[in-house]
């Protein structure tokens, strides 16, 4: 079974631009979560989607948004980019939603904002 | 509320030595606990997890962890370090219907 895939792997943007990141979960998985990883803040939860519905949202500004499609693929969007948005964005999928489910992570998209 | 504290941002061991990475958690309800490993320029890979039942959990690559409720700890151990174990390790907790909360990570350095 193919793992979680994320595209693109690397991105360079400038302040004020917007960016869309894509995540394809493991086949059959219906839950997708997004995390931001930075050296200073570590791994922080962004949001979780299950069957196209946002179940949970982390403490991030409204510039960060996401969605999930009927095939479980997910996208996250960051508008009006700031230098502090430079990070590794990780997507994780699980077969169901719920605390006992193991989350499988993709390789991440590294975003650099100049 | 839940939180995770990993003691030591860096741990250095010699090849063949015991690996011990410390993790303490805080949770108002019975937690599920996880250890993940991250190699450079890669995502996170699950090493092991504790949900319920046996408190000693065995994972991949010879790692194991013991859930100690009285100490609110979930330390990760491996009897004999290998060079390939050099990576960053993250402890994580989830409780109730909240989401995964990660510790800050511990970088494991293995010297020959």
Structure, described:
The complex is a heterodimer of chains A (about 110) and B (about 110). By secondary structure, chain A is an all-beta fold. Chain A contains no helices and eleven strands. Chain A has strands at about 5, 10-15, 20-25, 30-40, 40-50, 55, 65-70, 75-80, 85-95, 105, 110-114. The termini of chain A are far apart. With about 110 residues, chain B is an all-beta fold. Helix content of chain B is about 0%, strand content about 60%. Chain B has strands at about 1-5, 10-15, 20-25, 30-40, 45-50, 55-60, 65-70, 75-80, 85-95, 100, 105-110. In chain B, strands 2, 4, 5, 9, 10 and 11 form a six-stranded mixed sheet that branches. In chain B, strands 1-3-8-7-6 form a five-stranded antiparallel sheet, with no helix packed on it. In chain B, a hairpin with a 5-residue loop joins β6 (about 55-60) and β7. Chain B is globular. At the A-B interface, β5 and β10 of A face β4, β5, β9 and β10 of B.
List keywords for this structure.
heterodimer; A: 114 residues; mainly beta; 7-stranded mixed sheet; 4-stranded antiparallel sheet; 0% helix; 53% strand; globular; B: 112 residues; 6-stranded mixed sheet; 5-stranded antiparallel sheet
